[in-house]
Write a structure and sequence with these properties.
Blueprint lengths: L3 H7 L3 H10 L8 H14 L4 E4 L25 H15 L5 E5 L11 H18 L4 E5 L23 E7 L9 H4 L2 H15 L11 E7 L8 H17 L2 E4 L5 E5 L2 E5 L17 H4 L17 E6 L4 E5 L5 E4 L7 E4 L2 E4 L5 E3 L8 E3 L10 E3 L5 E5 L5 E8 L2 E8 L19 E5 L2
Parallel strand pairs: 1-2, 2-3, 3-4, 4-5, 5-6
Antiparallel strand pairs: 7-8, 9-10, 9-20, 10-11, 12-13, 14-15, 16-17, 17-18, 18-19
GO molecular function: hydrolase activity, hydrolyzing O-glycosyl compounds
Keywords: Glycosidase, Hydrolase
InterPro entries: GH (IPR017853), Glyco_hydro_5 (IPR001547), Ricin_B-like_lectins (IPR035992)
Length: 437
């Protein structure tokens, strides 16, 4: 087995070998598998949990439908070898408490994929992992690049490993149609279709009399080109993840690759870190993702449920200022709300959200009988909170400007779901997020 340094030489990565020698000289003369062990051990020292994922069989950039790695029986995907590999890896990491889960296979795909063999081999894979280590979770991906688990509605996966199965789903801007749809089609309809599609293909697993665990184990956007398409896709994903309190994993953290498709020092434009791993590519990441880091629903809690009002475009939550007006702020201690009919009341004192006039900052009022306190969701996205003004026109909550925290009411954007309305409504997207913590 090649040692780390020899592998760098084999790939003509001499400068990288010198870097390893300078920063981690002990790595140069150990095997790749031993380096794998040391990395996992370091994760444990840093109190991080590890999901060991089986990505591809033939080590290469992933993924293509005809790359030989897509489905059981493909040129580089021998099921017997795969099962042996799972057993070997699980036994190798056994006893490392930081390893909490094993992913059976990433993004099954290609012309040979079929449900019959999916059931056969996923059941065998789950059993293999369980027999080797009954203490780890088993992550199971679906078909079509892990975007489709809908076949489980009529034919559940047959395993006997208890409640340790976790299904995973992936979603990108192109997963449900051309990327250009995010610009060329009405955004309220596009986002609603994406969320409905996610529910149909995977989200259904979380409901019913015997719900299953589901994780959005891969999603992301180009963090070098923060254009309208990427921003719109990400806002929609925020809505889905927060609304379902889903655990998630972002593709990707790394800023670059040693080698990718025979090219060296390749930038990962979807990477959170820049190419030198020194700063964030996307400076707004901590604010934009803050609510996604929080647990919103605790199944064992006896606390009553309430709402957080969330603004996905900014990643911020609605707060009440000292002068009783609504503004956006961090989500560390957001105000909690109840919805009673068409009224949205502050849990703390029962005061209602009331609109004043178009362009004015929204406030709290003790007069909950006012028509200016009757709020209604509009559009297919259900993300516009609106009131009828005295002239019978709908006004929607809106962030006053990208630099202002004030929440005002303005004429609603594209809420009639007209196919010709391509204006951007994200500033008016406000989501009532259920929580009991």
């Amino acid at each position: 087995m090649y040692k780390v340094g020899e592998n760098f030489d084999k790939l003509n990565l001499i400068d990288f070998r010198l870097t390893i020698r300078f920063y981690n000289p002990s790595f140069e003369n150990i095997t790749v598998v031993e380096a794998f062990d040391l990395v996992i051990d370091e994760f444990g020292k840093q109190d991080m949990m590890v999901l060991v994922d089986n990505h591809v069989s033939d080590p290469k950039w992933c993924c293509d439908g005809n790359d030989g790695n897509g489905f059981f029986g493909d040129k580089d995907f021998d099921p017997k070898e795969w099962l042996e590999g799972l057993s070997n890896v699980v036994n190798r990491v056994k006893g490392k408490p930081q390893v909490v889960a094993i992913g059976l296979r990433n993004e099954l795909r290609g012309p040979n994929q079929n449900q019959q063999n999916w059931h056969k081999y996923m059941s065998q894979g789950a059993t293999t992992v369980h027999n080797a280590n009954p203490n780890v979770l088993v992550f199971v991906s679906g078909l079509s690049y892990d975007t489709d688990l809908s076949f489980l509605k009529t034919n559940p996966l047959n395993t006997s490993i208890g409640n340790k199965l976790v299904y995973e789903v992936h979603s990108y801007a192109w997963s449900s149609g051309p990327r250009s749809d995010w610009i060329e089609k009405p955004l309220n309809q596009k986002c609603a279709n994406v969320m409905n599609g996610l529910n149909d293909k995977a989200g259904f697993l979380m409901s019913g009399s015997n719900p299953s665990a589901l994780v959005m184990s891969e999603f992301g956007m180009n963090m070098e080109i923060l254009d309208n398409m990427n921003q719109r896709f990400m806002s929609c994903m925020m809505v889905y993840l927060v609304g379902n309190d889903l655990d998630w994993a972002l593709w990707a953290a790394q800023g670059a690759y040693y080698v990718r498709k025979n090219e060296t020092r390749v930038s990962e434009t979807f990477g959170l870190w820049n190419i030198y791993f020194r700063s964030l590519r996307y400076a707004e990441f901590p604010q934009r993702f803050q609510l996604l880091h929080k647990k919103l629903l605790e199944p064992s809690s006896n606390s009553s449920k309430s709402y957080i009002i969330y603004h996905p475009l900014s990643g911020q939550c609605v707060r009440v200022s000292n002068n009783h007006k609504l503004e956006l702020g961090d989500c560390d201690w957001p105000n909690k709300w109840n919805q009673e009919g068409q009224q949205i009341k502050l849990v703390e004192n029962g005061a209602c959200i009331e609109a004043i006039s178009e362009g004015s900052q929204v406030k709290l009022s003790s007069d909950c009988k006012s028509k200016q306190s009757f709020w209604k969701k509009l559009s297919t996205s259900n993300l516009h909170l609106s009131i009828l003004d005295r002239q019978g026109n709908y006004l929607c909550l809106e962030r006053e400007s990208p630099t202002s925290p004030k929440i005002v009411t303005k004429k609603c954007i594209c809420v009639d779901d007209s196919l010709s309305c391509l204006d951007d409504p994200q500033s008016q997207w406000f989501q009532l997020v259920t929580t009991n913590v």
